[in-house]
Amino acid sequence: MAANALFSQLPSIESTRDPSSLSSASSFYPSGQSLQLTGVSPVSFPSIRQRVFCQANFSAISSPSSSVNGKANSGLKDFLHINDFEKATILNILERAKEIKALIKSGERTYLPFKGKTMAMIFAKPSMRTRVSFETGFNLLGGHAVYLGPDDIQMGKREETRDVARVLSGYNDVIMARLFAHQDILDLAKYATVPVINGLTDYNHPCQIMADALTIIEHIGQLEGTKVVYVGDGNNIVHSWLLLASIVPFHFVCACPKGFEPDQETVKKAQQTGVSKIEIIHDPKEAVRGADVVYSDVWASMGQKEEAAYRRQVFQGFQVDEELMKVAGPKAYFMHCLPAERGVEVTDGVIEAPNSIVFPQAENRMHAQNAIMLHVLGV
User: Fold this and answer.
1) Is the pLDDT of residue 132 over 90?
2) pLDDT tens-place string over residues 40-71
3) 350 and 218 in a common domain
4) pLDDT tens, residue by residue, 275-328
5) Which intervals hold domain Aspartate/ornithine carbamoyltransferase Asp/Orn-binding (predicted)?
6) Active site members
7) What is the pTM of this model?
8) Nearest CA-CA partner of 75 in 220, 244, 193
9) Cβ–Cβ under 8 Å, residues 282 and 256
10) Is the dihedral of CA 282, 285, 290, 291 positive or negative?
């Protein structure tokens, strides 16, 4: 069936938009959202690592409001932390990600919402998945992305972050940054006059967790009510799961060695919301019992490689292997944000098993990020 005919059969909906963050707004701005296909009648879609103990507390990690720029007044948004948004908005972004994914998979190439738009991509930390998923996704929807590697800017060293933010805002419609220090992304967003997307910091990785949530919804049917068990270092991935658990109800467990727990303030604040059941324990086998998802990440992130040998000793017993997956149960899926060190934090057999959804998870980075970019740009 031709793509036009296929999508014309889909029902239209009204999608909900979040005006900014939980700290600054408590209502949503509804608007009819259609995908305009060039030369086709408008159609609508169904509702659509480095270890860090963050010095700022949980309540302070929301998108910085600033009189320096007029983003709030213009309706443009940053995407810095998942808990900057309400539950309905996050779920709407995920629904839209499913729609855009279906559109791209169909071969349809006339939906170009980013036509004429440019995105600056700042990489203090290199990454295959982050670069290719953002650049390819933006291109598929009509935009042009500019890669700025570690030697191109040296933000905060060769040039102050506030200057970089304002210069790039003059050239581009959106900025994505993959950085080390979390304060850098906050400063970038404060001074930029265009939306800023957090592609990763040492504190959190919201785009990854949005892709993870999309993958869980696709394979289980929903995120709410599931049990997600992370086994390994209490790093930026764990912080992101905690921030998601503060607005969407599910059972989140982090199983880590003593001394490698996630940031205590982030854990405390997430638990105090009362939205999800959150546990930090030190026994992987106890943690994974009844899990819907078992999740792992490298034990030594970028910037920690000098600790790799030491960490391999400390993390003995925290490898996700076939035995641990048997404890989790036959219905448990395995996820990993990649890159993986096979034979270290996870065995080759677990990654290649039928219940591993690692590679659909990696692909969903692009689809989740497309939806995030559409949201922050108000398209």
Assistant:
1) yes
2) 444 444 433 333 334 344 544 555 554 454 67
3) yes
4) 999 999 999 999 999 999 999 999 987 666 678 899 999 999 999 999 999 999
5) 224-375
6) 337
7) 0.83
8) 193
9) yes
10) positive
Residue 2: how many CB atoms within 10 A of its CB?
10
The helix/strand/coil state of 324 is: helix
Verify that 252 and 120 share a domain, yes or no. no
> What is the model's pLDDT at position 72?
67
Q: Which CATH number covers residue 281? A: 3.40.50.1370
Distant-in-sequence, close-in-space partners of 154: CB < 8 Å, separation ≥ 6: none
- How distant, in Å, are the alpha carbons of 100, 131, 333 from that of 212? 16, 17, 12
Q: Could you list the residue range(s) of the whole structural domain that residue 92 is in?
A: 82-204+364-377
Residue 90 has pLDDT above 50, yes or no: yes
303: left (phi over 0), alpha (psi -120 to 50) or beta: left
Do 355 and 213 reside in the same domain of the chain?
Answer: yes
Q: What is the pLDDT of residues 133-156, one digit of tens each?
A: 999 999 999 999 999 999 998 888
Are residues 165 and 297 located together in one domain of the fold?
Answer: no
Bridge partners (DSSP) of residue 230 are 254, 295
